[in-house]
Amino acid sequence: MNWSFLYLARLLGLEFPNVLRNILNKEECQQFFNYSKRLIEAIFPDGEKEDLSKEDELNIFLENSSEKEKKNRKQLQQLLDKMSKIDISKEKILFYFRIVEYPGLMTCKEFKEYFIKIDKNASFFNQLEFENQKEYIRKILNDKENKLSNKSNVVLDEEESKLNEEILKINKQMRKLLEIIEKNKLKNIFSPDVFKNILKHYGEHLENSEGFNLKIRDQEEKLLIEIVSKVTSGIELYLEVLKPWDNQYISNEYKKYLNKDYFLQLKKKLETNLEEKLSNKLLEDFKKRNGIKLDYNYNKDKAKKWLLLRKSLFNSKKNYTRIDNLIKKAETNKMIQENFYNYFTDLISLWDKPLFLKNSDSIKKLLKDKEFLNLIWSGVIVNQLSDAKFYDLKYYIEELEEKIYQDEFKNIINNPYPNWWSNSEEKIKDWGESEQ
């Protein structure tokens, strides 16, 4: 069976009713697709035997059809019969796409063979195409999920012990694959989705902490910690799997784990690790154009907002020295100053907006931390601002004074203003009047 042809035929079949409707509605299309006309042109190209009628030529063709042509029509009928049995759901269509693009995707039999080979020599994994590596991980996770689920259904101790040994072997192999990927600098196949799956196994199946279950739980914990420790890109996506911002108002996804201390403890450990990585990344992002600019959409940039818009690891006192060093570099790196300006104005713009954080006071508390505010402020004014940005900044200062500090504002960020401040004020003093 030619899968590429089968896929193409099936895909075309989805649109065929619309195509046919257009053909039937247009006379020129009807003429173009006239079967007899097309057939005669194919048999007698270049106008040969034009004196014969179309019907005569068609009869000649049908009468002289060879056995091979009859066989081809029979094969086409078989193909159509098989196509009619194909599941046409969206998921299946995507699966056919994968078969066409990567015909080497493994069968269950191949997976079992690969598992044995990789178990003996993990470097065999290097020989697989990247898509097959992803498929192998998908299958090994499904295999583990089935084995974990079956543990509660087996009757004999011997059967349960066998399942436990197989699960331990799977986890051991997955840790080997992590090492192989890092050692050979392969593209990471332990994606956020894979991470989420393993976390799900850990939370749903390993509540019992005795015997083999404890061994499996320890293995899973080490595997999850290793995955997180090796994350270098897409940190936000891994943090969004854990949803630390939902800890107080736990999401439906994690409600079932509320009484599982072992799960919550590991979750907290993973969150801390990822938050530290993201904090380091944000410090580097200050050096990039619009590196820390936030999307005001409620559902966007949640991980960045989690660190930037509340008291967090990023803006904790132990990080102040690193932020201060960054501000010193802003004297010669204008993008750093632009990002401090954006950060400062975002904090004031968003302090009373309904954020996913659910605690509307989180930004206000951050801004009322005078040590933090002065630190960020020094990054905003390290070099003279353009007249337009300076004019906008004056508005944000008024907001900060009137809405957040009120009568407590004196000498917080204006002690003293930089030397260029009065000159900039003079240049924009009539701007408000001209707008009116």
Which terms summarize this structure?
436 residues; mainly alpha; 22 helices
Largest sheet: none
Q: What is the beta-strand fraction?
A: under 5%
Instruction: Return the average pLDDT rounded to an integer.
Output: 79
| Order of helix and strand elements from N to C terminus | HHHHHHHHHHHHHHHHHHHHHH
Q: Work out the helix count.
A: 22
Poorly predicted tracts of residues: none
The value of Rg in angstroms is 33 Å
Termini separation = 76 Å
Q: What is the strand tally? A: 0
* Secondary-structure content class: mainly alpha
Shape category: extended
**Share of helix among residues?**
55-70%
Summed up, what is this model?
This protein is mostly helical and 436 residues long.
List the topology elements:
Elements: H1 3-25, H2 27-32, H3 35-43, H4 54-63, H5 67-84, H6 90-101, H7 108-120, H8 130-150, H9 157-183, H10 192-205, H11 211-229, H12 235-242, H13 252-255, H14 261-285, H15 302-308, H16 320-329, H17 334-350, H18 362-367, H19 370-380, H20 387-405, H21 421-428, H22 431-435
